[in-house]
Design brief:
- By secondary structure, this protein is α/β, with parallel strands linked by helices.
- It has 2 domains: 51 residues, 2-Layer Sandwich (Beta-Lactamase), CATH 3.30.450; 202 residues, Rossmann fold.
- Helices cover 37% and strands 24% of the residues.
- The chain has an 8-stranded mixed beta sheet, sandwiched between helices.
- A hairpin with a 2-residue loop joins strand 2 and strand 3.
- Helix 7 packs antiparallel against helix 8 and helix 10 packs across helix 12.
- The termini are far apart.
- 34% of the residues are buried.
Amino acid sequence: MLVLHPGPIPRGALEEFWKSCGVDSAATLEMDISWNVPGGGRLRVNLYHTLGRLAAVLRPIRNDIPPLVQLGLPSNLIENWLQRRFGLILITGPTGSGKSTTVASCLEWINQNLSRHIVTLEDPIEFVFTNCQSLFSQREIQQDSINFSNALRSALRQSPDVLFLGEIRDSETAITALHAAETGHLVISTLHSSSVVETLERFSHLIGIESTGALNLLASQLIGVLSQQLLPRLGGGLFPALEYMQNEAGTRRWIIENRLTDLQDHLLKSTEATNCSRLEYLVASVKQGYLDSDIARGACARPQDYDRAMRGIS
């Protein structure tokens, strides 16, 4: 049984914790896992060595899965994306931006509203789903498959309708995800990128920016990108600062031609409900009383653009 120690934790206690996680601290240098707390609750755990000592970082995982509206997300837009039979949806943001919760909310919406076979490939599994209208097959990397690439190729033979890929980390996984979308699957995945344009730039480099065929595939299969970061909300709590884009005729052409500057201009100038720049979102959030102006300004890539926007200068 794991016993919590006040102050510095003795090595023996950490060895005991590693063992309770099913990891041999002598044979393993680092690992991501999920861990069930005795008596209830789940933690996301990163085990690692530092200067010859054992260490662990633990992050609680919510048991409940909040609906899209409760998360402050554009629910009508995202629900439209989730009803597509095939294509690629990317949820992006830095570490700790709430990507896992957003994806869980998306999958639970499908579970409550559509009849689908949902295969999840995660490292580690965070939210555990209960079948409702959909059937879940949840697979953990290292426990149920060697790596994301192998798991994704195998998942395509498991008759999935929806594939959740925990993170796109390399070229092989990125290209396989696109081919999965092309062959009639709805693929949802995440990237560590801070904006819509940065997401497309990173994904384009993964699949080969010099390959017209690969960019054509991305342009044709991408449904949309939702980029988020969490900021302190006025009055307490956290507020999601968003940027999102639905991929349509004009944006497809810019992706194929790698004209990401034009795409950024489109986001800034668009009046469609399917597109919103982070600058526009931050300015609106300040004016509606959700965010402090200094916090919003600091979250802008170009604070001077925020100052102009707050003065009504486009």
